[in-house]
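Structure request: N-acyl-L-amino acid amidohydrolase, Marinobacterium nitratireducens.
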Amino acid sequence: MTNRNTLRTAIAAATLSGVFAMPGFAGNAESLSADIEKHVTDITPQVVTWRRDIHEHPELSNREFRTSELVAKHLESLGIEVKTGIAHTGVVGILRGAKEGPVVALRADMDALPVTEDTGLPFASRVRTSFNGQDVGVAHACGHDAHVAILMGTADVLAAMKDELEGTVMFIFQPAEEGAPAGEEGGAELMLKEGLFDELTPDAVFGLHVTAAAPAGTLMVRSGGVLASSDVFSIKVSGKQTHGGLPWLGTDPIVLSSQVVLGLQTIPSRQLDVTETPSVISVGTIHGGVRQNIIPESVEMTGTIRTFSPEVREQIHQKIAHTAEHIAQSGGGTAEVHIDPGYPATINDADLTRRMIPTLKRIAGDNFREADPRTAAEDFAFYAQEVPGMFFNVGAAPEDPAKRFPNHNPKFNIDEKALPIGVKAMTSVALDFLSGS
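Returned structure:
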């Protein structure tokens, strides 16, 4: 206990002094309730401690056993109703306020990545495990350690304000945002499938993500499409095998596949209205042939489809099949197309986002900005398909530019001054939504 208290004191001195010294932050603190300020200030050292502990002990998708146990014990200590084992390792907490009102859900993802950490941090991960038959390192290279710690801190703050709460808060600690292991289900889709919103349906759901694209103190959101859908396609182009010196005796699937790759690129640039929504089709693998003088029987390729519009997404699926099949047929071959739908686009509800922008501006001040749409994908989208949702970003780039690396990089790390800002943002959007602000 002595060591923990010493750590908390040291972190408080290093962290809080930096947080409240940031440009534009001091003035905003005055506009927030004194209770929220005090609770966030008090819990920040513990939030940092949680983040470092989770960072040092990362767990892959559907294997977040230690993390979920840590979360459940904390929620129980606050007197929050706790449900565990949802979608394998998911944890849900229900905090019922003293006053009647709406239901708001707050979500954090818990899983780490099969990445060998190279940050040099004293609390860096040294965990290794087997992934897809390979020995790999495991690291929180996408900031989910911060997300869990922020939501744990938010639960602490809101539980302390239970008597003033005008409604109910659902805390969703979700496994497998990065994708379930092969042969398994997981993530937001499975949580919903197992009845997450059946007994208690939120009136709104909020999620956040730390980003190395902006400094600590920054909050970013946009209405409408904020993250793209992501689908995987595979195409098998079949021809007729023959000698490489006698191609006219066969049908060359390599040439046809090359034409298919080029044809796919005309879909977003020539077959869709480029002013409506951005779309990206990328071919990532091509495999065919075993010897330089044999034209093979078939070629297989795989790739991804990303767009921000559900309607355009469906059009692209149809056009990929049409393009591949007809190009193959034009050369005497055939094409089999399979599309595996992944995460839908994350669409921020327009009315909800409009209501909450003043809340984020109150916290970030001049450091608030409109988020740019990104072609990454997020399974928060499944929640936002069920109820109005808003997903926003918390700037967390280290102050030293030489230490700034993108998410999923082995050197990815955050500026911990982002943690209390995340707690304040999550707490404030929940309270403002419940109170009808």
